[in-house]
Specification:
It is a single chain. By secondary structure, the chain is α/β, with parallel strands linked by helices. It has 10 helices and 14 strands. Helix 4 packs parallel to helix 5 and helix 8 packs antiparallel against helix 9. The radius of gyration is 18 Å and the shape is globular.
């Protein structure tokens, strides 16, 4: 049974983009305009699952005006007015492949804007059950040290911190402390946490991440499912095979479902099942980190979770 809504979840999102995508439709070509970026996609999946997340992100310029309108019913108390325009991109998918037509990154926040974003996140986070810390979408629009500040301040107040990060941003957040980290197998190899994407090497990498500041770790492994170390439980997760329409957004769906599960007090097995079901359903759709809650809950029992030895 699906839990009832809990206290809200805050999402730290340094960079939110305006997305324009061309698609081939039955009646002719279509243009779709949406908010985009890791933080927004996490927030959208949380909305699908039935929560009302607060997105803590800078909003400015003409792209920011459009984003305010497109964010719909999300709470506005996490939106930070900014003098810089939000990043944007135009993608053409009419051929079936994603072609980048134009891309404009978010501008770098100065020290005062960084401080304001951190303060706003703390204000929203301290009144939330969980805070999800997302990256800058490779924009690098904030200094990596900000992630340590955010995680350390939230952790010291007793707030649960769930992070989905890589590279320097992850290393900074680990120094501040992470309650639960979601990371991909490719990111672990690229960042040197694992020597390869073999199960044994990934398990060794999970141990290293736990020693470096992450209490629990979930590693997404694409079609191979996931690995998880939550408390004393080590788990291997296998998901039903889905026809892949777009793999992008699956990791964000998983992160959102882990945050939802944590805020509702679900156990480790239930949490990884729900997270894997959300990720599996996402790849079968065009919309990133989207789906139907009923389909996710019906898919959850089909996810196989096996205890393993570390």
């Amino acid at each position: 049974m699906q839990p009832q809504p809990s206290a809200r979840i805050a999402v730290f999102a340094p960079s939110t983009h305006l997305s324009v995508t061309f698609e081939a439709g039955v009646g002719g070509d279509e243009m779709h305009v949406h908010p985009a970026g890791q933080g927004f996609w996490v927030a959208r999946m949380l909305t699908v699952l039935g929560d009302t997340p607060v997105l803590c992100t800078p909003i400015g310029g003409e792209t920011g005006v459009a984003l305010r309108a497109l964010l719909g019913d999300l709470p506005t108390d996490g939106l930070l007015s900014c003098s810089l325009p939000n990043g944007s991109y135009v993608h053409d998918r009419r051929s079936g492949e994603r072609e980048v037509v134009a891309q404009f990154p978010s501008g770098a926040l100065d020290r005062h804007m960084e401080d304001d974003l951190v303060s706003l996140t703390l204000a929203c986070g301290l009144g939330s059950a969980v805070v999800v810390v997302c990256g800058s979408n490779l924009d690098g629009n904030i200094d990596a040290s900000v992630f340590q500040r955010v995680c350390a301040n939230l952790q010291s107040s007793g707030t649960i911190v769930i992070a989905d990060l890589a590279g320097a941003e992850l290393r900074s957040a680990l120094a501040g402390g992470i309650t639960l980290l979601k990371v991909s197998d490719a990111e672990m190899v690229d960042d040197g946490w694992a020597a390869s994407d073999s199960t044994d090497d990934l398990l060794t990498g999970i141990e290293s991440l736990r020693k470096s500041g992450a209490s629990d770790v979930v590693v997404s492994c694409g079609e191979r499912g996931a690995l998880a170390a939550i408390g004393s439980e080590w788990l291997k997760v296998d998901t039903p095979s889905m026809n892949v329409v777009d793999h992008r957004g699956a990791g964000d769906s998983m992160t959102a479902a882990l945050a939802y599960s944590t805020s509702h007090g679900l156990g480790a097995l239930e949490a990884v099942r729900l997270a894997s079901a959300a990720a599996a359903l996402n790849v079968s759709r065009h919309g990133l980190a989207s789906g139907h809650a009923e389909a996710i809950w019906r898919l959850q029992p089909l996810v196989e979770v096996t205890p393993i030895a570390p």
